[in-house]
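Note to self: the last two entries modelled the partners one at a time, which told us nothing about the interface. This time every component goes in together.
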Amino acid sequence: MTNIFSIDWYFISLLFFIGLSCILISKNMFKQLIGLEIMSKACLLAVILSGAATNNVNLAQAIAISMILIEAIVITVGLSILIKIYKTTGSLDLRKLL
Amino acid sequence: MTISLLAYLLIPLFSAVLIQFTSRYKKNLADIIANITLFAGFLNISHLIFNTAKTAKFSLPPMAQDTFTLLMIFMIYMVALAVSSFSSGFLTEEKNRHHFHSLILVSVSAMCGIVTAGDFFTLYIFVEALAITSLALIAFDKSKKGLKGAIKYFFLNFSGSLFILLAMAILLFTIGTFSFAGIQHLTDPAYGGHWPFQVVAAIILLLSGFLIKSGIFPFHIQTVAAKQGAYSPVSAFMAGTVTKIAGVYAVIKIAIIFNFFDLKLHEISETLMLIGAISILFGAAFAMRQKDFKKMLAYSSISQTGYIILAAGLATPLALLGAIFHIFNHASFKTILFLNEAGLKKNLNTSDMEKMGGLARSMPWTSWSFVIAFMSAAGLPPLSGFWSKFIIIIALWQGGAKGYAMMAIGASVLTLIHFIILQRKVFFGKISAIAKNAQEMPLPMLAPIIVLCIVILVSGILFPYFYACLIETGIKAIL
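The predicted structure of the combined assembly is written out below.
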């Protein structure tokens, strides 16, 4: 049982760092936004996993649903800023904005 | 979250919705509703804070009794009231003024949520709400600079929140709870006296998330860009409360909850102190080199945040008291400095310090309030900033970090020097071309600045009274 969970933690941290490196390396803001999403999916999995492992599924479910809600709002706000940037500068390249 | 303090959260939220419905065509109504809401809240919380002994007899829940929360709510309402009253004079040409006031009210409510939260998940939700509203406030300025600040703020802040979430998952996995009371219960010496390494990893993740949000040295890029890009009253609001509540408050809370002082967490404590010390020196040194008024204030804000983080890292009761009091003082003087900058920018259409000079004659009130604020920032004796820095330095000396104590004294001299340079360039000295046509700010813009100056003076001179009040009610409840 514990063995399975440690494998899960491995994949969660892998997913988290894929997202983080996507934010750090990519120069396109849209790709960075996708990286942010990947990171938040890793966190979602981590919360569900901890809930399942500690027999505390109700709490984990409540947290996961609130997280999905917050994520949706964050992505909406981020996309709206990206649209505004695209309208003013004509591209989504980070180097052109800075 | 406590029932009695919920009103401070819900009433601004209600007013924010009300403004959207009522003031689309009557813009002045938005000013009036926002100011009345904040003023009522401010009166209410000041009554509560000065009569803690009386109100404690009623059935206030245990969380509300700690003065930390009450002082933070007082500070939030004070700064928000100053900013919103200033903006009703500042944003006269802005078409979407009602959105601005709505956003300020929503972020006030989110900040009250943060300081009354009882577990990390509630804290996280309100931190996200605050980040979204402040992002909208930064992007309110439609220039390229505003967007640049907003996008930097967006990516750094929200990846910071994900670190916090991961830490929460680890806490849930290892100790099965993330409520403050539950964790504090576990830290009782009877439990074992030290944390397993998973919890230490969670603490590191939590701290890195909140340090990103507080905009301290390695992550300063977002706050500097955001403050430079945003409208000036928004910068005052950001520097005074938003970054302090979203980041620094949580760092202090973590230091209290996980009990850095008693348990064996020397490594984390030392790292936090090192980060604080670096950002004190870095902020002061960079502030000296800036040509732009606003950028200089932003860097000086980093330096002041460093003091708070330094004290929070030490985490003795005295240091925590100093850190809490310094948050309050920083809010009062930094708001004055940024609002003065806003007034100058509105008047002169520039924030380049080289072009200004000799403004003291045409704008005496602005000039002298600026003097009071920067003297408090540098920690000169009769003012409130002196006391908090004094407490922090004494706590550092007692805690054995004598090198840091000496450095803190040296850095406050640096702060004084860079503000004196600024004062000489902008307000004194040769009268420049643009200074001849400058006029004093109108009364609605000047009033909040003067009130905040009075707060600085009074809380500095009557400090022994406040100290007794804080010690009696606050620290006993916290520790």
